[in-house]
Amino acid sequence: MNSPLHVREFEKRRSEASPLVRFMGVQKSYDGTVLVVKGLDLDVTRGEFLTLLGPSGSGKTTCLMMLAGFELPTAGEILLDGRPISRLPPNRRGIGVVFQNYALFPHMTVAENVAFPLSVRRMSRDVIATHVRRALDMVQLKGFDQRKPAQLSGGQQQRVAVARALVFEPELVLMDEPLGALDKQLREQMQLEIKHLQQRVGVTLVYVTHDQAEALTMSDRIAVFDRGEVQQLATPTELYEAPRNAFVAGFIGENNRLPGTVISADGEWCTVKLEDGPVVEAVRVGEHGPGDGVILSLRPERISPLADAGRHANRFPAIVEELIYLGDHLRVRVSGVGRSDLVMKIPNQAGDLALRVGSSVHCGWRREDVRALKDDPR
Amino acid sequence: MTSQAAILGGADLSGALRVRKPLRARLGPALLVAPLLAFLVVGYVLPILGVLWRSVDNTEFRTELPRTVKALASFDGGDLPPESAYEALHQDLVDAQNARSVGIVARRLNLVTTGYRSLILSTAAKAQAMRPPYREAFAAADPRWGETAIWVSLRRLSRPVVPDFLLVAIDLEESENGIRHVDPDRAIYLDVLWRTFEISLLVCGLCLVLGAPLAFLIAAKPRWSNVLLTFVLLPFWMSLLARTAAWVALLQSQGLVNKALLELGLIAQPLALMFNRAGVLIAMTHILLPYMVLPLYASMRAVPIELVRAGISLGASPLTVLSRVYLPLILPGITAGAMLVMILALGYYITPALVGGTQDQMLSYFVAFNASQVLNWGLASALAVLLLLVLALLFALYRLLARVAGPVPA
User: Fold this and answer.
1) Chain B residues with at least one Cβ partner in A under 8 Å
2) Which of A253, A315, A326, A250 has the alpha carbon at shortest distance from A280?
3) pLDDT tens-digit profile of A153-180?
4) CATH number, domain containing residue A38
């Protein structure tokens, strides 16, 4: 408080510039032999919505629990606001947590649940009442304050949990698959609600999910986890458009995987010979050269049929094997480029595409849309 | 729309939906439990009713002295009864003497006032030779026949139902001026009742203090729960008597516990662990512990660890989470366990009898003592009724508490 102005100014700038959370070489092993988290380095920027995305067992929830304080890192350190927190008990970290099954206290009313973090901070009755009312308004649960959690629907319980995690105004909120138990429609609605809430409040949010669509919908940045490591940390657009490896390409969105061998590589482009002959031009991702095995990743919606195909660098004849009508788009499985499982998505625009099972088409794609990724060692 | 229609047509609908099941289908479930029901009625309900009846029953006495009962119907106890009463009693005593059942009368009267046994027996022996007027003849046989006290007692016992055993069970008695406290030197049963309660409460508390951490460990560490649960259940598979006998071997002054402590140099003199309250508490707590651990375990397992974590993440200290989240949620388990232990402990008999001293005997001991040693079945029944009543009250309290707390959905 009494430090000179320039020092305070410096401190302020430092804290604005520095990440809110920093994982430094964090490792975790439960049994002393298998590392669930392998040397994690990750920064969480102030005010961002960061999602830890990955299949189950990829270590994402463990990371969240280490940040919340319920698990101790085996090695490494976590900094919160520049301070190491490994020795700080979870109740003194001031982090709001929303658990998978809401973890509402069943013996308390909605209002008592939301008031809990305030009452343990010994706030006055009036202040608590005001905050609780505001928090319940915020999640659109006005008038539900005297209900017990068992009298609420899943979505309403979820909102109470969110209100409870936000009501004490933490800088950081963690959510562990909070929408997992809701049905699809409600889940999509809650995704947007949580995202808008986060933007309005300006809180930093670390979110764990295994649902890539959810991650793409909500996040500012996504850290894709697999086997205890971050495979790629990027914005949703970058993850989808420029996956760094085959795992990310496969996990985020749909993609056709075409194995092949590099013929020539030059800067950001390369030429790849597919297993069954055709030669494809592609974006070169990572260090690989002639003779290396690669996987070509190609999004189904980037393959275009018929007349359009003529403009593209990669163009091949194919035969329609299967047509699935999905309302807004057609899903077409064709055989071509030596494979029978090439999938393309065609937007359902006015006019018959005149595609029939068995009809032959030309399909093509731009070389920017196919990425040659180093073959996954798995 | 649909719900509205259902509400509007509710009465009709429920009537229309009530399908009449055939008689056989309705009897089916009843037949399945019929053997058990019959067993319970014969083996449980009827004996209990019998005990209830026995605590006030006086038929035996009335059958032995039928004429006296009739003659004393108009007797008010103010003065000596009329000659007709003496004559009736004379005839009854002669009959009873001949039927060799006069002992029943003597014993019953003796339970009211000590000394009446010999009075009745000696009078009955002389009755055959008595000649009218009987009032003088009786007075000659024993001067007590010339006093009102014995007649008041006879008058009281001529009623079909007598409350005196029930009164004695709570240290009261009937007197000329209504119901009063018995002499302090004869008042024991309220003390015994209080002692029974005290021991049960202490055992209950000990079980809770010792059992709660164990139950928590079993609930929190699923990997150990099988082994630990087996250890908890182990005592169930051993007879109560064997376990109590084992405690005798452990606790006596030359027992294992004392020897070990002496060897370790922790004590210089053997501790008195047997024939006192300590022994009773140790043995009873050990035997009743599973009844506390199991309900606690069940209620603790129903509390997800996320609730505790949520409480902590919201800024509460572990102690606050314990008192505001965890304890309220396992309260049903605590009350259920405490009820079980209390109910079982209140009726304990063998364990205090074997490891306790004279000052540690519980109500059941006096039931058994009166039933098998003194052969005073009336008092034994009355004490049993008292015990039953205490349990019923306790159960009512439990139900009340459970209703106030409300059902806690897991």
Assistant:
1) 304, 306-307, 309-318, 320, 324-325, 328-329, 408-410
2) A315
3) 988 999 999 999 999 999 999 999 999 8
4) 3.40.50.300
